[in-house]
Each structure stands twice: as C-alpha cells, then as structure tokens.
Automatic annotation (TrEMBL):
<dbReference type="InterPro" id="IPR024084">
    <property type="entry name" value="IsoPropMal-DH-like_dom"/>
</dbReference>
<keyword id="KW-0560">Oxidoreductase</keyword>
<dbReference type="GO" id="GO:0051287">
    <property type="term" value="F:NAD binding"/>
</dbReference>
<keyword id="KW-0520">NAD</keyword>
<protein>
    <submittedName>
        <fullName>3-isopropylmalate dehydrogenase</fullName>
    </submittedName>
</protein>
<dbReference type="Pfam" id="PF00180">
    <property type="entry name" value="Iso_dh"/>
</dbReference>
<dbReference type="GO" id="GO:0016616">
    <property type="term" value="F:oxidoreductase activity, acting on the CH-OH group of donors, NAD or NADP as acceptor"/>
</dbReference>
<dbReference type="InterPro" id="IPR050501">
    <property type="entry name" value="ICDH/IPMDH"/>
</dbReference>
<keyword id="KW-0479">Metal-binding</keyword>
<keyword id="KW-0464">Manganese</keyword>
<dbReference type="InterPro" id="IPR019818">
    <property type="entry name" value="IsoCit/isopropylmalate_DH_CS"/>
</dbReference>
<feature type="domain" description="Isopropylmalate dehydrogenase-like">
    <location>
        <begin position="4"/>
        <end position="345"/>
    </location>
</feature>
<dbReference type="GO" id="GO:0000287">
    <property type="term" value="F:magnesium ion binding"/>
</dbReference>
C-alpha cells in the first residue's frame, strides 16, 4: 500500500532542513519497503509574493482526502508584513484539518545539553499533549474604550467539553499504547474556575474509562517548577493550548533547545502535520548552521503515525549516534554543517535499516 506524504519546506531554514528529512524518509522507504510516496509543494513566502497564493482550498481538500501526512519545514519571512502568509497557511492546515493534538516530546539526548545537569543525572523523557484548537488562541474578546485611561482588554478562554475530552483521551490512549502508567493533567483551576472546572470534571470522569492508568493532576505553576526540580516525574502531560505552549518551551530549554525539538499536529486516524518546533530562523539562512535533528526527530513521529514504529526507532538510534560522536551543528555545541550532520545520520540509518 502506498502512503502519500506532502512535503512543504516553506521558508528560511525550513527549505534547508525539510528536504533533508524527506531524503531520510525516501531512504527508509526503499530500504524497508514502506511505500512512501513523497510530493513537494512550494507554499511559502516566495510563492505568496509571486502570485498571492497561500494554501488553495482545493489542495487542502486533496490533502484531507488522499494524503496521510505532511512534513512541514517552517513559514515566516521578513519580506512579508507580520508573515501574513504564514498564519494563513498554518492556521488553514491546523483548523481545517482539525488537528487538535499538538504532541511534543521533551527528551534529553545527552546530559551536556541540559542546564539542569550538574547536580546528578536528570532523566528527562516525556511527551506533552497540548490542546491545539481552543483556549485563549481562538481570538475571542475585544478592546473596550481603546486609547482611553479606562481601556479594558478581554481575551476569552474558550474550552468545550468535546475539546477537553478529546485531547485528554489522546494523551491517555497514547500512554496506554506506550506502556506508560501515569498521566498528568495540568490546569489553573484554582484561579480560572470556569475553564479549569471543566477540565477537572472531565478528568475525573475519564478515570473510569482508564482504570489501568493513574490519572493525576498538578497546577501549572507547580508543574513548571517541578519540571526544573524533578523533570523525571513527567512522562506524559496533557494541558491546554496556552499552558502547553509555555511548558513545552520550558521543556525545550531544559533539553537542548529548538535544534532538537520535534512536534506532531494530529487528529488520530486522520492526516497529521509534522514540523520541527523552530521557525524559519532568517538570521542563519544560508550559513549551514541549521540543525536538522529536530526535523529528523519529527520524521520519527511521522513514521510512528504511519505505524512504522521500528523505523521510527531506527531514526532515533541514528540521532543518538550523531549525539554520541558530536556530529552536530553549533547551536548544540558541534562544528558541523547541516549537510554533514544529515549525511552522517543517513549513513547510520543505512547501516541500521
Ligand atoms: P519565525 O518567525 O519563523 O518563528 P524566528 O526568527 O522566530 O522565526 P525561530 O526558529 O523561532 O526563529 O528560532 C529563534 C532562533 O533560534 C533563530 O533565530 C536561530 O538563531 C535559532 N534556531 C532556531 N532553530 C534552529 C535550528 N534548527 N538550528 C540552529 N539554530 C536554530
Ligand atoms: Mg519564532
């Protein structure tokens, strides 16, 4: 069976790292008979500046109908005011494909990448589930009496029962599949009573459906502190859009930064969008300094989404070898270029596959 994969490199270093990821997928596909069929799309700033195209609705429909995954680089370009094209492309994909799960691993590949290590080994190996379609990101609210001394700005935090339940279930199902025993839900229900109250009630109800798991809770301020003090506690965490944004940046900070951070945008069973957490990084475009590892780890998530778990492990193993031999870019203490790191990783994959 063929699996159609769309590759959208986008802008900036997205155009440098996404093609490296695509080569890795092609390589694994032919070595292991995975039947991946990759197709490149040129959506991004150049296309937008040329003819105004962001993401045509009929293409979005084709993605939904015929494709199983999108490998995405990054969008954002200083030539486009507020990177308008970027918001249109990413929001169209996220909302029209209803990708309600933002899954982000927080994993420390080697002690030397964490500012926390020094007082003994820290085990940092978790997966964060961030709600991706609701919360304060829905842009409901307004500025009243704007420009006066009495101005009031209101940003509504929108949480639906269906929305809360489905992201919690996604985390719990993932934990079950991966043999995890404990899942943390994090909110601020002591201060945000309405939204937090819903999360609390849903979480208690779900405990009945998952008697094999331990469903725990921690306020988000406490969890932020504990991620620094006892990161080994958090192997699976589920939270809302805003808290997930903040906690996963904290997670990136304690585990080596953006060059290693991968993410998946999912609606389980449907097409998924896979992207490194970093943006287009215009400051390092063309220097060979873009770290491709975040993209490779993103490819591992993509492979897992397609059910190719063994191949996902091969990619992770190849990355571990690059880390062990310090074949890395300068952002994580190495002195190699994007293509040197990429070639090394693919050579390891060739050996392991
Ligand atoms: P965007 O507007 O698209 O989000 P940005 O300028 O905010 O782009 P980010 O990707 O968010 O860029 O990253 C911030 C900085 O971190 C970059 O400017 C870059 O210096 C560094 N950085 C990000 N990703 C990488 C990477 N993969 N390899 C090396 N350095 C990176
Ligand atoms: Mg950015």
């Amino acid at each position: 069976m063929m699996s159609k994969i769309a590759v959208i490199p986008g802008d900036g270093i997205g155009k440098e790292v996404a093609p490296e990821g695509a080569k890795l997928l092609e390589q694994l596909s032919s070595a292991r008979g995975l039947g991946l069929e990759l197709e490149f799309f040129d959506y991004g700033a150049d296309r937008y500046l040329k003819d105004g195209t962001t993401l045509p609705p009929e293409q979005l429909e084709a993605f939904r109908r015929d494709y199983r995954a999108i490998l995405f680089g990054a969008v954002g370009d200083p030539r486009v005011p507020d990177s308008r094209h970027a918001r249109e492309i990413l929001l169209a994909l996220r909302f029209q494909l209803d990708l309600y799960v933002n899954l982000r691993p927080v994993r420390l590949l080697a002690d030397r990448f964490s500012p926390l290590v020094g007082k003994g080994r820290k085990e940092i190996d978790g997966v964060f589930f961030r709600e991706n379609t609701e919360g304060v990101y829905v842009d409901v609210g307004g500025n009243f009496k704007q420009g006066t001394a009495d101005e009031i700005a209101i940003t509504e935090d929108v949480n639906s029962r269906k929305g809360v339940e489905r992201i919690c279930r996604a985390a719990l199902d993932w934990a079950r599949k991966h043999g995890e025993k404990t899942v943390w839900m994090s909110d601020k229900s002591n201060a945000m009573r309405h939204a937090g109250g819903l999360w609390q009630r849903v979480w208690k109800e779900l405990a009945r459906d998952y008697p094999d798991l331990e469903l725990r809770h921690m306020y988000v301020d406490v969890l932020a502190m504990q991620m620094v003090l006892r990161p080994e506690l958090f192997r699976v965490v589920v939270t809302n859009n805003l808290f997930g944004d903040i906690l996963t940046d904290l997670g990136a900070g304690i585990s080596g930064g953006l060059g290693f951070s991968a993410s998946a945008n999912l609606n389980p069973g449907k097409i998924g969008l896979f992207e490194p957490v970093h943006g287009s990084a215009p400051d390092i475009v063309g220097t060979g300094k873009a770290n491709p590892i975040a993209t490779f780890l993103t490819c591992a998530l993509l492979l897992e989404h397609l059910g190719h778990d063994a191949e996902a492990r091969i990619v992770e193993k190849a990355v571990d070898l690059a880390v062990a031999e310090n074949v890395l870019t300068p952002d994580v203490g190495g002195s190699r270029t994007t293509s040197e790191v990429s070639e090394f990783v693919r050579a390891q994959v060739a050996r392991l596959a």
